[in-house]
Structure to design on (241 residues):
DNA sequence: AACCAGGACGTGA
DNA sequence: TCACGTCATGGT
């Protein structure tokens, strides 16, 4: 089976298994009619795109806060930011790093992440979301990647979910799953794995968003304990095929 | 009680 | 380039 076929089949299997994920999950900036805190929401008609700068900022903050950190801890930090009313560019810009760090304490690495959030908001004060969205992917990606504390994965999350750019996100689970399937080696480079997906799939925003979300969802369940994937009920067939 | 979590960066070789 | 160490709270 060709690589392209494998990656497309994998997507179909995961989608069939779990259904649409509706990422990125929003928390404090959920609209009133949507449901509980920290969960993704999926509407077949109104897809879960961020509709305002408030939600876009929350996606950026969440992407930073969840770096090497359980999403539940990141949500606690997001709720803490909301409680302290640190939910706008203006308010965060006026807040000292030490106070910011205190508010996001539960996400871990709080000193580093406070600085990263500072670097992000400094940039957003010069380049609005609207401006960044209009730029070609390569240019906006370069700008986001230039923020200290934001590496390839966080940058791609921001681009894919907040700026709605067609870029594929590679995370630790994706690497483990592909390595379990024998498609890549344990330590394949981020950019080359990203290329595998992007060259195998239709350049479609929703597919990129859903696929990454599905991989994380599946990875959380079967690829967090060593040996990875050994109890995976649905991919063992694909692996041996 | 170790181990892991939706990473990124600095350092020395 | 690459192999480590560091950052840190909270779950299981």
């Amino acid at each position: 089976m060709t690589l392209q076929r494998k990656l497309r089949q994998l997507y179909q299997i995961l989608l069939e298994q779990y259904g649409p994920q509706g990422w990125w999950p929003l928390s404090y900036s959920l609209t009133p009619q949507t449901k509980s805190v920290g969960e993704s929401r999926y509407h077949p008609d109104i897809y879960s795109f961020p509709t305002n700068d408030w939600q876009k900022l929350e996606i950026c903050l969440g992407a930073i806060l969840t770096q090497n950190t359980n999403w539940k801890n990141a949500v606690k930090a997001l709720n803490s930011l909301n409680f302290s009313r640190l939910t706008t560019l203006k308010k965060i810009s006026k807040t000292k790093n030490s106070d910011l760090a205190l508010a996001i304490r539960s996400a871990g690495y709080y000193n580093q992440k406070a600085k990263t959030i500072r670097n992000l908001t400094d940039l957003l004060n010069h380049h609005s979301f609207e401006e960044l969205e209009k730029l070609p992917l390569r240019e906006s990606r370069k700008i986001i990647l230039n923020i200290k504390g934001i590496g390839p994965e966080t940058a791609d999350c921001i681009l894919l979910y907040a700026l709605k750019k067609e870029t594929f996100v590679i995370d630790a689970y994706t690497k483990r799953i592909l390595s379990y399937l024998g498609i890549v080696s344990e330590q394949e480079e981020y950019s080359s794995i990203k290329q595998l997906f992007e060259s195998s799939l239709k350049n479609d925003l929703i597919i990129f968003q859903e696929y990454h979300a599905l991989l994380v969802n599946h990875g959380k369940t079967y690829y967090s304990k060593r040996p990875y994937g050994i109890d995976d009920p649905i991919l063992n067939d694909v692996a041996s095929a």
